[in-house]
Amino acid sequence: MRIAVQGCAHGELERVYGTLAEVERRTGVRTDLLVCCGDFQAARDARDMESMAVPPKYRRMGSFYKYYTGELVAPVLTLFIGGNHEASAHLQELSYGGWAAPGIYYLGTAGVVNVGGVRIAGLSGIYKGGDYARGRHERPPYDERTKRSVYHVRQLDVFRLKQLREPVDVMLSHDWPQGIEQHGDLGQLLRFKPFFQNDIDEGKLGNPPARELLNILRPTYWFSAHLHCKYAAVVDHSSDDDQMRKQTKFLSLDKCLPGRRFLQVLDIAHDASGPIRLQYDAEWLAVLRSTNGLLNVNSNVYYLPSGGGAAAGGPSSFDGERYDFSPSPQERSAVLGLFDDGSLAIPENFVSNDAYRRGVGVGAAAAATTNPQTEAFCRLLGVDDPLALVLGGRRRAESGGPTAADRLFAAFDDDYSMIPDDDDDYSKNPDDDDGDGVVVVQRNSTSLVLPEPKNDRSEDASCAERNRPPVWTPPPPPDAKNDENSPPESDCRHVEKDESSRCRSDALTGGGSGGDGDDAEIARVVGSRREDEAVGRERIEPKTLKRRNYHREDDGGGGSD
């Protein structure tokens, strides 16, 4: 079987097909399958462009929409995985895989299919440690944080791929397995990409979970992209105890641009007894069905079952809980029994949504909706659609309810989580306030009631206020009464209410000394309070004031001199 491998497409699907047609014209051999290693950018319309983690100045519609609407037809069966620059609103509808357009199939966040007897597995997205152990909680319309976290690799997808026991012929990933650069011509790589040196020295180049899959699955071929260069390596898995030599041939390709090495054509042995068509993989379907109870759509960090316990680097498994989900013969037979004719052929049930086909202007939020393909797949297999759970909070499917671990860890949700910002994005995350590359994200906390504090801090504060020493007030200036900001006489009658009321009461009832002396005393007390308040206002509002002289007439009217 003749397979063409494409690096990063970046929406240039029409150009990729044109290049492949030129290769076929020169060689005279038709290509049976095209696989793309991410950054496919399956944007259906302007709304999908809003879900791409790309600054507006770099957003281009590309040519995928022509194949989605039927304006053009894919000339060859095409498989692709997701990268870190994708129309996530579209791909999230196809979590378990499905037809993105007629003849163009998406493998999902993780998936395994069979094409002409060749077993092809794929892992979408890139690795970021801050999101790896979280559930798939994102939903459109995305904010600047979830627009990036939605394409980060999650532990459940890697866990499911680790359960495979049958040989894998081709493995696809967007970013490289960690350490793969040590198995090729490293000097040539650094001459072309010298800035890789620091990441290589610090062990940060590549995907650590992908390295684990490389050592467990040991596929014949591993194709990647992401780093925009062509690089080949050979990993030898054989040891002294192995009877047969086992190797993995690794190849990474560039992005689709003129003069770049973005396409490679090779021949892979296949089953020539039947037609080359797309089929489900029975073992993978059995894994999906048995691990449905591990599905988590919360933003909290949670853990998957581990048989090794803390000694193996993970928490101990709950008593009696299953931790090895490699399918048994009975589970495989149960999956095969779901298909009436025993055929695992993937139905060509692509459905175009009329709302997407009409499209809207740039800037409109993409509506979140489930895809009929995914709904049909979940009904057939008895599993849950992650997007449907996020949107509607439906109950889990009958095939597997929430496990004890799922119920336990769903109760924990950090109020604040430290999410490392992507270092491969074009622009700075606007949520990164201090520019240190770390975004502090506030999340909705669970209903946790804390006890009241033992000490009454409000009472302590009032005590401190009462014991605070008096503030010294300077004497008023000679012309403070002429200040235009000085309060009028009527505004000062509330000052020292108790004392002034007592003075007025004594004057009216004949208390105190009485006579003109009492009136003079009342005028002195009230006048001093006016001056104190005027001085206090000047102290609270220390600013330069313009002084004006006012002349009051006998009739109450005022006029300036």
Explain what the structure shows.
The structure is a single chain. The chain is of the alpha/beta class and 561 residues long. The chain folds into two domains: 2-345 and 358-442, Purple Acid Phosphatase, chain A, domain 2 (4-Layer Sandwich), CATH 3.60.21; 483-560, no CATH class. The chain has helices at 13-27, 46-49, 64-69, 88-91, 129-132, 146-149, 155-162, 186-192, 197-201, 208-217, 282-290, 329-336, 354-358, 372-381, 386-392, 404-409, 457-467, 497-509, 515-540, and strands at residues 2-6, 33-36, 78-80, 98-101, 104-106, 110-115, 118-123, 170-173, 221-224, 231-236, 247-252, 263-267, 278-280, 416-420, 438-442, 550-552, 558-560. A hairpin with a 2-residue loop joins strand 4 (98-101) and strand 5 (104-106). Helix 7 runs parallel beside helix 10 (208-217).
Topology:
Blueprint: E1 2-6, H1 13-27, E2 33-36, H2 46-49, H3 64-69, E3 78-80, H4 88-91, E4 98-101, E5 104-106, E6 110-115, E7 118-123, H5 129-132, H6 146-149, H7 155-162, E8 170-173, H8 186-192, H9 197-201, H10 208-217, E9 221-224, E10 231-236, E11 247-252, E12 263-267, E13 278-280, H11 282-290, H12 329-336, H13 354-358, H14 372-381, H15 386-392, H16 404-409, E14 416-420, E15 438-442, H17 457-467, H18 497-509, H19 515-540, E16 550-552, E17 558-560
Parallel strand pairs: 1-2, 2-3, 3-5, 7-8, 8-9, 9-11
Antiparallel strand pairs: 1-12, 4-5, 6-7, 6-13, 10-11, 14-15, 16-17
